[in-house]
Amino acid sequence: MYPEDRVIVGVVRRRRDVTLLLQARWYRIPQAHMPDGVFTEYLAFFLSASLFDGARGGAVCYYAPLRGVELARRRDLLPQEPRHPRANALYYQCQLGEVLSLASPITNPTRRRFAFVYTTFDRLLAARTLPELYSEEAYFVRRVYDALPRAQTLARKETIYFS
């Protein structure tokens, strides 16, 4: 684990997906959200408010190293949902190493909806709230767009938001 390691924070909305994450150790990302590929060393997981049994909001509770990525159709990843509207859509199946709990969950006090946040490992460990994943403090490594390799990867400083 290095401070400059890239981290993508994704959202987990359903209990079934938490089970896949913790037991089967994989997470799916729609290819449409990351058409250039998944370029990260770690994935972190924001569990939505619905998974907290009435708590005020969700939080980033877990992270895991990325071990591999395969491209598959949703119907192949989730065969119990063959008639899902996106059954034929392509997804990255991200295989994970050991799923670890953060010492302090990262909350979302603004309750802003998002799909993915790009950050660095040092920010992930230091943050207590979602906006802190973007901190520009001098003691953090340079922003994620500076940490990305220049070759074959377009650096992005962005969060994908839902309106």
What does this structure look like?
By secondary structure, the chain is α+β, with helices and mostly antiparallel strands. The chain has one domain (6-161): Archaeosine Trna-guanine Transglycosylase, Chain: A, domain 4, CATH 2.30.130.30. It contains 4 helices and 8 strands; from the N terminus they run E-H-E-E-E-H-E-E-E-H-H-E. It has helices at 15-24, 74-77, 121-126, 144-147; strands at residues 6-12, 26-30, 42-47, 59-73, 90-96, 100-107, 114-120, 159-161. It starts with 5 loop residues before the first strand and ends with a strand.
CATH architecture: Roll
For the biggest sheet, the summary is: 8 strands, mixed
Give the averaged pLDDT, no decimals: 84
How much helicity do the residues have? 10-25%
How many β-strand runs?
8
Number of helical regions:
4
Q: Report the structural category.
A: alpha+beta
CATH superfamily label: Hypothetical protein
Which stretches are low in confidence, meaning pLDDT under 50 for 5 or more residues running? 150-163
**Mind telling me the CATH class?**
Mainly Beta
The string of secondary-structure elements, in order, is EHEEEHEEEHHE
What is the end-to-end distance?
A: 34 Å
The CATH topology turns out to be Archaeosine Trna-guanine Transglycosylase, Chain: A, domain 4
Which value, in Å, is the CA radius of gyration?
15 Å
Number of domains: 1
Strand content: 35-45%
Categorize the overall geometry: globular
